[in-house]
Amino acid sequence: MLAKHLVLVFAAGLAAAVEPLVDLKYTKLQGTALANGATQWLGVRYAAPPVGALRFAAPIDPPATAPGTVEDATKFQPICLPRSASDFTMKPNKRFTVAEDCLYVNIFAPSNATAAGDNKLGVLYFIQGGGFQSNSNANFNGSDLAVFGNILVVQVNYRVGPFGGRGGGSLNNGLKDMIQGLKWVKQNIAAFGGDPDQVVAAGDSAGATGVAMLLAAFAEKDPGLFKGAIMESPSVATVRTLAQGQEQYDCLANATGCLGTSDSLACLRGLNASALQTEQCQFNPHLDGDLVKTPLLASFQAGAFLKVPTIAGTCSDEGTKNVPQDTDDVAAARRFVNDQAFGALSNASLDVVERVYLDAPQPVFAGAGRLWRQVANAHGDFRAHCIAARLQDGQAAAGVRTYNYRYAVRDPEQEALGFGAYHTVELNGVFGPDNTDGAPPKSYRTTNAAIVPITMAYWAGFVRTLDPNAARVAGTPEWKPWTAEGRERLRFETGAMGMENMNDTQKANCDMLDPMLPAIETPTDKPGSVELKQN
Ligand SMILES: *[C@@H]1O[C@H](CO)[C@@H](O)[C@H](O)[C@H]1NC(C)=O
Ligand SMILES: *[C@@H]1O[C@H](CO)[C@@H](O)[C@H](O)[C@H]1NC(C)=O
Ligand SMILES: *[C@@H]1O[C@H](CO)[C@@H](O)[C@H](O)[C@H]1NC(C)=O
Ligand SMILES: *[C@@H]1O[C@H](CO)[C@@H](O)[C@H](O)[C@H]1NC(C)=O
Ligand SMILES: *[C@@H]1O[C@H](CO)[C@@H](O)[C@H](O)[C@H]1NC(C)=O
Ligand SMILES: *[C@@H]1O[C@H](CO)[C@@H](O)[C@H](O)[C@H]1NC(C)=O
């Protein structure tokens, strides 16, 4: 009698674990419970298909399905069609296919998460990178991170290239997709065991830049979509004014034969999606007076951003995969650097860049140009390290808690090739090397395997409590917040984890580069007008 009573009390007190079949009221989804303790729902529509009349339009909610319908959420759906047909995501790949109909999230939850009661779990909403031209870090497997961290992991596809930038119609649809996904999460994530009030918006590369742009977009009014942010290798997007952006639209219209037709937008909407792919045009976010009112750096300098705790950081060798490896002579190096700033640097400024970076001895690697690593170091500073520092200076000045990291995990093979700890390599630590794109540095499975739980624990602690120290692995250092004076950052290196400070040399280089950064963000009308000074 007593035993039976206890069982009943237990049954009433313990909320049932989430079932793979989830009822969202407007539809039902069949996911999969995995042997590793996670349940996954793949290819879940978070917006109506952005095709036909909705091509170039802002995202809208997905339609309800007919009563009784159970949608298959056991397989990935396509990722978004990239700008160019030569993009690597177009090549045959067992992880993904591409299509215009691509607005899907993938959801990973611990199988013992509960959809009822008070034990809802924090949610990591992950926005992948790809330079706003492609979905480059697609279909990662978030199940290990979800189980290890006792959090939900949601990965989002968003429109890129002409579909996400300025094809015509609504502007900044890629950013709007990121927001639509967050709204969908707010509305629906409780049914998967997630806490709609404990969401952290995270991203890498262009995804991190997107997160920073959302922080700026919500400066005046917090829509309550996320409580914290993680920016892995943020940079600045090139944001153009409407007038400057007309060039992008005309480029697309010209490339597709729609320029000069009586209604070029209707013409663009009428084309097969693949006919909109182009090698010759670039598409980026725009200053639209609404979502993107000011360039990012100016917003952060002015304290105009959503005041939530953040993590931001970079990999030691951010530039190695982003500059031409064959850079061999000074003229080519100077040209490359100035192209990054749309020609804004004067020759005297390029002389400064030459003295500071190109004249600094660096190792030469087999098959690479003699100035590859020098240009990579410059690029790493002006496109990543210094930008993260400036975003965090703004946050620290506003009294917002922000934590910086430098990902310095040394893989013997990548070190020998000269790539070092390259742009976005930390994703292998965050998700685990078997869960990313299939080509992780090999040591993440052997001598660097210990870095994976260490990284996951800081990330998960932040998602759960907004403090990365909340669940850190025993023996790892306390992560102290960034200050403009101390420039504190956590170094991720196997066997050598520790707090350090951005050193005086790099600080001086960032100070020197400061006048260049706005010219990367908004193309100048005055070539040669930016003066850099060595202190
Ligand atoms: C789910 O399992 C993990 C690992 O065993 C545990 O830490 C967590 O408390 C469990 N959650 C629930 C809701 O039972
Ligand atoms: C993620 O990994 C688990 C464990 O290996 C596997 O069962 C599951 O199918 C994977 N999910 C995806 C989406 O690859
Ligand atoms: C239109 O495209 C052609 C090549 O496809 C190019 O030569 C021409 O300069 C372009 N014109 C404009 C106005 O962009
Ligand atoms: C239309 O586009 C799809 C994919 O976007 C492609 O598979 C198909 O071959 C295209 N058809 C034509 C006629 O170009
Ligand atoms: C800057 O240097 C380039 C290359 O040496 C040269 O062609 C150009 O005329 C110089 N510009 C000025 C304003 O001196
Ligand atoms: C300063 O930091 C940069 C970037 O981490 C590094 O490349 C450089 O070697 C450091 N310089 C000194 C003097 O420690």
Helix share, percent: 25-40%
Tally of individual helices: 16
What is the total tally of β strands?
16
Spatial strand arrangement across the major sheet? 3-4-8-10-9-11-12-13-14-15-16
Parts with pLDDT < 50 across at least 5 consecutive residues: 1-14
**Approximate strand percentage:** 5-15%
Bound molecules: 2-acetamido-2-deoxy-beta-D-glucopyranose
Kindly report the average pLDDT value: 94
* Shape call: globular
| Radius of gyration over C-alpha positions, nearest whole angstrom | 23 Å
Largest sheet: 11 strands, mixed
What is the straight-line distance between the termini? 83 Å
- State the secondary-structure class: alpha/beta
GO molecular function: carboxylic ester hydrolase activity
Pfam families: COesterase
InterPro entries: AB_hydrolase_fold, AChE-related_enzymes, CarbesteraseB, Carboxylesterase_B_CS
Family: Belongs to the type-B carboxylesterase/lipase family.
